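Entry:
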Amino acid sequence: MSVVTAFSPDWLALRESADAAARSTELLAPLRRDERRRVIRDLGCGTGSMGRWLAGRLNGPQHWILHDRDPLLLARAVEGMNGLTAADGSPVTTEVHEGDLTDLRGADLAGADLITASALLDLLTFEQVEGLAEACVQAGCPSLLTLSVVGRVELTPSDPFDTDFAAAFNDHQRRGLLLGPDAPDTAAQAFERRGAVVRTRPSPWRLGPDQAELVREWLRGWVDAAVERRPDLDGDAYFQRRLDSLESAVVHHSDLLALPEAALFENARSETVRSETVRSETVRSETVRSENVRSENVRSEGGR
């Protein structure tokens, strides 16, 4: 089964700042330990917003392989990542891979040092999430999968019909065999069953009056999806009422970092080498200091 959902470049551009503010930087700590040249495969890259957010937060040269089935989005992604540099000024390069993500296997991801994706998991089925986890673990590198919907929205002030529309929207996200808001937990379990250590953090959109255009477009899509599942709901009246009264919206997401055992071993080995180096330098300094003191004592005795 293919991922059939498509997103317009305009919508992706509109949400990029909210995505950037929402993603968890806390999950990046294990990824910052490696400053070698790394190959990063971005699955469902869209217009390249993940690359624009992450490249400047990691040190060392980076080569991004951008995966998407939409050639227009791939072209936008390459253009949008042109000229990026890493946090330490190292170069960032790109190449594209056009094709369906659900066809990827572990061998297709071989050689990757990091696998990333944004707003992807909730668009997949159980079998597709299992396949993705298998491919990522077989690749033997960390996977950073961000901005998966979790099915919770907070609208201020509240409205008596908020719960009905939220439930209908979540039902829409689960249409067919799609996981929708069940995807983050399903993905975490899929990686853990394959021996990966999984870390998750919340990554909510926090929308206010300064993001009126995004609020309007998000709310319109949210309401329309709900009405598609519940035609008895008066979507137009609710949309206008909420648009007129809404002061803020929190749209909850979840970020996931999966660290395979191999990656954990490499990190542990790096820490061990670093500790041994520090220990050796300390011993060497103490030895030199002792020799200097001994020489001074001998010199003093000779002078006396």
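The CA atoms of residues 155 and 249 lie 5 Å apart.
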